[in-house]
Amino acid sequence: MPTKTRILILGGGFGGVYAALELDKRLKHRDDLQVTLISEDNFLLFTPMLHEVAAGDLNPTDIVNPLRRMLKRVRFVEADVTRVDLEAKKVICTRGLRKRPLEFEFDHLILAVGSTSNFFNIANLEDTAVTMKSISDAALLHNRMLAMLEQASLEPDAAEREKFLTFVCAGGGFAGVETIGAVNDFVRDAIELYPELRNEKVRVVLIHPGEVVLPELGEKLGLYAQKKLIERNVEVLTGQRVTGYSDSVVTITDGLTFPAHTLIWTAGVKPSPVIEPLPLAKEKGRIKVDNTLRVTGHENLWAVGDCASVPDFKTGLPQPGTAQHGLRQATHAAQNLIAHIDGQPLEPFKFTTIGQLASIGHHTGVATVFGFQFSGFFAWWMWRTVYVAKLPRLAKKLRVALSWTLDLFFARDYEQLYTARDVMAFAKLAKRFSPETPKEEKPEAVRPAERITV
After folding, report:
1. 125-267 CATH fold
2. The pTM is what?
3. Dihedral over alpha carbons 35, 44, 352, 112 (to 10 degrees)
4. Which candidate, 387, 380, 346, 47, places its Cα nearest to that of 224?
5. Fewer Cβ close by (within 10 Å): the C or N end of the chain?
6. How far apart are CA 171 and CA 191, in angstroms?
7. CA-CA distances (angstroms) from residue 428 to 139, 164, 368, 421?
C-alpha cells in the first residue's frame, strides 16, 4: 500500500474546522492523504453568539455543531495538545480525564490552536473571574446571574447584598460590550420576579482602558454604543484598567473600588501556550506567516487564526483575530497545502475585512459594513441576520431563527440549571475518574487512522 501524506490539524475553532472542511472535500477524490483534526472539544462553537446563551436567548446546543457530523472523511480525535516537536514531526497529546498520553506523527501541520484569556499576571484573577471563551463560560454566567439574584433576595446585610447585585466587566471590545449589554438586560428583566429586590440597586459596570469602547468600529459608533449603554444604567468607565480583584472587591487604575461577587473578564487574549515554546518567528506571541499562510522558514508548517500573525495584503499589518478572517485563512491554507503537495504554485491570501457588527442589548446594535456605518435597531437586525446566515448547518440556523422568533412573543425563562451543589458533585465525579497519570507512563503508539479507533 502506498504511503499516505499525513496532514495534522490542531484546534477545533474556526481555523481548524474550516481547514478540515476544505480538506474533507478534497479527500472525496483522492486517497493519497490522511487528514486528522485534533481538538479538546468534539464540536465547533459559534463564539459570536456566546452572549446570547448567557442572556438565555439561546440554548447552549443552538450554537455548537458536532464535528463528527460535519466531517465525513477527515478523522477526528478528541484530545488536549500538550507539545509539538517540530524536529521529530510529532505532536504529543493527552486524552480523557485520566490524561492518557497520545503521540501523532505528521508530514504537514496546520496550527489553529487559537488563544486563551490574558490575565496580565493579576493575582487570583484566573481563579475568580468569569471568562467568555467557551460554551460552559456562557452557560455558567447565565446560572451565576440567577444565583446572585437568589442569594441577594435572602441576604439581610445591605453591604453584602450590594456585592450580589453588582456585575463588573473588564474590557470594552466586542466581547465585553456585547456581554455587558446582555447581562444588563437579563438582570434588570429578571429582577422583576424578585419582590425583595429593587432594580435601582442593581449596578452594572463596564471598564475599558481606551477612550472609547469598541475601538475597532471607530469613535462615532463607539460613542454611540457608550451613550446607549449609559442610558440603560450601565456605568461606563473609560481610560481605566482592573488592577486587582480580591475578597470580592474590584480595584481599578485610579484606586476606585467596586464590591462585586461577579467580575467578567474580556480584557485581553494571548496565543495558546502550545505555541509559546516553539522555535518560530513570532509577533506579539503570534506565529509569523508569509502571504501564503506558511510559517516562515518551514515548508510543511502552516498557521491560521488567533495563533497566527497574518499580514494584510493592503496594509501589511497583522489581521485581527476574528472569525471572518480565521475561517477564510483556514480554507486558503488548506488549498495552498494541497497545491504544495501537488507541486503547484501557492496563491497569496488577499482577504480584507468586510465589516464588523456588535449587539449592545435591548434590540440595539452598531455596525460598519463596506465602509458604511449603521446603528440602532437596523444594525441589531443586521447582526442577527448575518450571524444566523454564517452559522454552520441548516438545522442550527432554523433552531436559532425559531428561538429568536419565539422571543418576540414570549418572555424569557429564568431557571438556574446548575447550583453550587451541582458544581461540587461534578468536581467530586471528576476527581474520582481522574487520578494522577504515573510519571513513567509513555505515550501510546498511534497506528494509521484506518486501523485504530481512538
Report:
1. FAD/NAD(P)-binding domain (3.50.50)
2. 0.91
3. -50
4. 380
5. N
6. 25
7. 20, 27, 48, 11
